[in-house]
Amino acid sequence: MKKIAVFTSGGDAPGMNACVRAVVRTGLNQGLEVMGIKKGFAGMIDNLFIPLYSNSVSNIIQKGGTILQSARSDEFRTKKGRAIAYKNLSEHGIDGVVAIGGDGTFAGAKVFMEEYNLPFIGVPGTIDNDLFGTDNTIGFDTAINIAMEAIDRIKDTAHAHDRLFFVEVMGRDAGFIALQSGIATGAEAVLVPESKTDIDNLISTLKTNYEKKKSSSIVVVAEGDDAGGAFEIAKEVKSKFDGYEIRITVLGHTQRGGPPTCNDRVLASRLGIAAVQQLLNGEKGVMVGQIHKDIVLTPFKDAIKYHQRINPSLLEIISILS
Questions:
Q1: Taking the model in full, what pTM does it have?
Q2: What tens digit of pLDDT does each residue of 39-96 get?
Q3: 3-139+260-305: what fold?
Q4: Is 294 an annotated catalytic residue?
Q5: How far apart are alpha carbons 144 and 127 in whole angstroms?
């Protein structure tokens, strides 16, 4: 193996740049040439390859987003698109690829490998933390800290005006961000896709708090909750209980931006190094992850098929402490 490539794909996550940096400098340290592919699979088709050197990744470890950018690619879903991608990879002499992203990224890499047998190693980069095979994904720690800080601020104004706030956080169909930030901010309730939402039970909790003279309440809603988003749930609650003045805040993409936390920078650096090492060890079609502080390898098919599960005891913490 003489030359490798690295790309980021799917939704950006804080820490992706730290991972790119680790891949590049580890590759160079091992005597490899390293190329970056801009805009993910789309860039693989559009021939957006750039050489990366040590100074190419200087001063990026603290930056959010991704210097390689990211994009969706419908063309890569076709055999013709993948054939063009393989042609470009071959012309650049790429012997192996590090793919930083989520399950969609790994699904694309898996299909590509089945057709062309070019080694891919995946690195879990998504704020959702829903990938099987790692305790945390790159970007998750930053996302929950951003959500926590925002909810803390909202709680101040909620208390000042005796208001009930519904705060919607990201996570697609996973409730990890909602649950962690909800516990950390003392939310009265957390609604997540992994647990069926009982609106009547939520209203009962809010009424009890109101009768106890609680001056405010915070309900954290994961965007993929089965009862709908924050606006739909707030509307239903208001129709049955009007004790509090209700406000709604959707945190949205603020959770993806900004400098990554120390934990995300360290995790990204460690996984980036491991990805290159595993390519050199002859591994392919696996995701590198960290479980109980150890580096583990999970086949793409398992990382895609299974999802990390929420610990039920964390849901119980909310009801006990609220």
A1: 0.93
A2: 999 999 999 999 999 999 999 999 999 999 998 899 999 999 999 999 999 999 999 9
A3: Rossmann fold (3.40.50)
A4: no
A5: 9
